[in-house]
């Protein structure tokens, strides 16, 4: 970890899964429904892959996720899995399933009240990422919710670069739990805050972060 003195940022950019949202609390339901439907449609007839395999892939682009979760699957299975994933995630969110990490709302409100612009940059699908923000009543706190699904970016580096350009941001922090977040922040010249509380990735993924947090509310303590 790189220890440098932090300055007050103009904006803070957050990853969604594993940073704001406890994705596994939603995926436990979605995972079972998705593979049951794939088998029903004859697109994947083997046993349901362990959910740990799916959770370990969080933060990746969807196309890459399915290649790891069901490497013996067909392109048709991958395409249908994309459709079902979004459908079931939105249904379960609307039903009230899935939770945020502790202290997320109050910390975001404090940052917002201090005049810091808040954004989301996620490799997820557009309607899912915006759905989490909407159903958990935090959408109004963000100046922008960016997703790879909406902008069809090939990496989070490109997604964050677009966000910075669109909003004319010169100074920002990138907050996330995976190597893709660290890479996106460093490649765009941002201060990187690595989140250690999700447990999806390995410790090495956060190498290069300027600070590490074990609870979301620690973030506000870094502000001058």
Short description:
The chain has helices at residues 24-40, 51-55, 62-69, 75-94, 104-113, 126-135, 148-151, 156-166, 179-187; strands at 11-14, 21-22, 99-100, 117-122, 144-147, 172-176, 191-195, 211-213. The strands form 2 sheets. A 6-stranded parallel sheet has the order 5-4-1-6-7-8, with helices on both faces. The chain has a two-stranded antiparallel sheet with strand order 2-3.
Describe this structure in words.
GO terms for molecular function: phosphoglycolate phosphatase activity. This is HAD hydrolase-like protein. Keywords: Hydrolase. The protein has helices spanning 24-40, 51-55, 62-69, 75-94, 104-113, 126-135, 148-151, 156-166, 179-187; strands spanning 11-14, 21-22, 99-100, 117-122, 144-147, 172-176, 191-195, 211-213. The two termini are 20 Å apart. It is an alpha/beta fold and 224 residues long. The chain is globular, with a radius of gyration of 17 Å. It has two domains: 11-20 and 101-222, Rossmann fold (3-Layer(aba) Sandwich); 24-94. It contains nine helices and eight strands. Helix 1 crosses helix 4 (75-94). 42% of the residues lie in helices and 14% in strands. A six-stranded parallel beta sheet has the order 5-4-1-6-7-8, sandwiched between helices. A two-stranded antiparallel sheet has the order 2-3. The model has no long low-confidence stretch (mean pLDDT 92). Strand 4, helix 6 and strand 5 (144-147) form a beta-alpha-beta unit.
């Amino acid at each position: 970890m790189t220890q440098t003195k932090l300055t007050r940022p103009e904006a803070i950019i957050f990853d969604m899964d594993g940073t704001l949202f406890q994705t596994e609390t939603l995926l436990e339901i979605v995972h079972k429904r998705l593979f049951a439907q794939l088998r029903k449609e004859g697109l994947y007839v083997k046993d349901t892959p362990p959910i740990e395999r799916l959770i370990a892939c969080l933060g990746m682009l969807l196309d890459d996720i399915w290649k790891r979760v069901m490497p013996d699957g067909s392109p048709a299975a991958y395409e249908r899995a994309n459709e079902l994933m979004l459908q079931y995630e939105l249904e379960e969110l609307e039903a009230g399933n899935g939770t945020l990490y502790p202290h997320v709302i109050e910390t975001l409100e404090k940052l917002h009240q201090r005049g810091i612009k808040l954004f989301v940059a996620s490799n997820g699908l557009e309607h899912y990422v915006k759905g989490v923000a909407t159903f958990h009543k935090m959408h109004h706190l963000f100046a922008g919710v960016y997703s790879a699904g909406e902008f069809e970016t090939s990496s989070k580096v490109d997604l964050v670069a677009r966000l910075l350009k669109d909003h004319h941001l010169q100074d920002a922090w990138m907050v996330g739990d995976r190597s893709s977040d660290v890479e996106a922040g460093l490649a765009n010249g941002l201060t990187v805050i690595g989140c250690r509380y999700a447990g999806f990735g390995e410790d090495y993924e956060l190498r290069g972060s300027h600070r590490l947090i074990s609870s979301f509310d620690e973030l506000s303590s870094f502000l001058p």
